[in-house]
Amino acid sequence: MLRHFKVVVAYDGADFRGWQVQPSLPTVQGTLADAIFRVTGERLLPQGSGRTDAGVHALGQVASFGLKSPIPAAGLLVALNDVLPPAIRVMKATEAAPEFHARKSAIAKTYRYRIFRADICPPHLARYVYHHPYPLDQSAMMQAAVKVVGEHDFTSFAAVDPERGREEEEVPNIRTVFSSGWERTEDEFMYTVRGSGFLQHMVRNLVGTFLLVGKGTLKPADIDSVLEARSRSANPGATAPANGLWLINVEY
User: How many of the other CB atoms lie within 10 Å of CB of 237?
Assistant: First the structure.
């Protein structure tokens, strides 16, 4: 009898080519699949809540899979962490209902983007933040962030690559953003966004566009016209570097 599992996974994405398995390249999904095989002898592909890009980190990625093995969830947790590399940790493992699917069952996700603002970025943080010590109008960026709250067509903030343009490819580019805002700590300016789902590069493209607002190239009101254009070419914002992005958690 097949038993269904839900695992919460944290990882340092710096040395991986993203979540999705790729031939001959280190990926989080592929590494997790290899660990499951080593523990249970079963070859399968765990399904993630979404495909984080190369260099993106996670505190609360969720994956689901089925096993024939009688191993209890607590034992699976310990065994996987024994064989996984230190850059990937299974934080929680529980049995799930047969209909549970890490991606299809998700109702909300939260991402955070970290910008380090001090002049010198400590080496132990360099892999996990985007270092930008230059002048920014942070107040204007805060005003711009609230412009994307609500249900919108986010094509202007989607990836250009037609092969991987959407996280959920069977649905259009309409997403609902429940909250979107910036906050300043002593050395970091952090963007946190919670939504129903996200297109590939969507959060990084939002950050890149908000950075143009911070530099004065765009005004907060310009976010409205960028959204309405429904075209990535109409958005002058660059895709922010991957290393500053974190998947915080997934809700079900």
Answer: 22
Can you list the alpha helix ranges (DSSP code H) found in the chain? 28-40, 73-83, 138-145, 202-215, 222-229
Q: Give, to the nearest 10 degrees, the angle between helix 202-215 and helix 138-145.
A: 140
From CA 73, how far away is CA 177, in angstroms rounded? 34
pLDDT tens for 70-112 read 999 999 999 999 999 999 999 999 999 999 999 999 999 999 9
* pTM (predicted TM-score): 0.94
For the record, the structure tokens of 110 come out as 């939260």
Residues noted as catalytic: 53
Cα 85 to Cα 156: distance, rounded to the nearest angstrom: 37
Pairing status of strand 150-153 against strand 174-184: antiparallel
**Are 57 and 11 within 8 A, CB to CB?**
yes
CB atoms within 10 A of CB 174: 13
C-alpha R_g of the chain: 19
What DSSP line would sit under 106-156, residue for residue? --EEEEEEEEE-SSS--TTTTTTSEE--S---HHHHHHHHGGG-EEEE-GG
Q: List domains and CATH numbers for the chain.
A: 3-96 (3.30.70.580), 108-251 (3.30.70.660)
**Cβ-Cβ contacts under 8 Å for 147 (sequence gap 6 or more):** 220, 221, 223, 224, 227
Model confidence over 200-249: pLDDT tens digits?
Answer: 999 999 999 999 999 999 999 999 999 999 999 999 999 999 999 999 99
Q: Are strands 88-96 and 3-11 parallel, antiparallel or unpaired?
A: antiparallel
The residue type of 123 is P
Between the alpha carbon of residue 97 and those of residues 4, 5, 214, the distances in Å are: 6, 8, 46
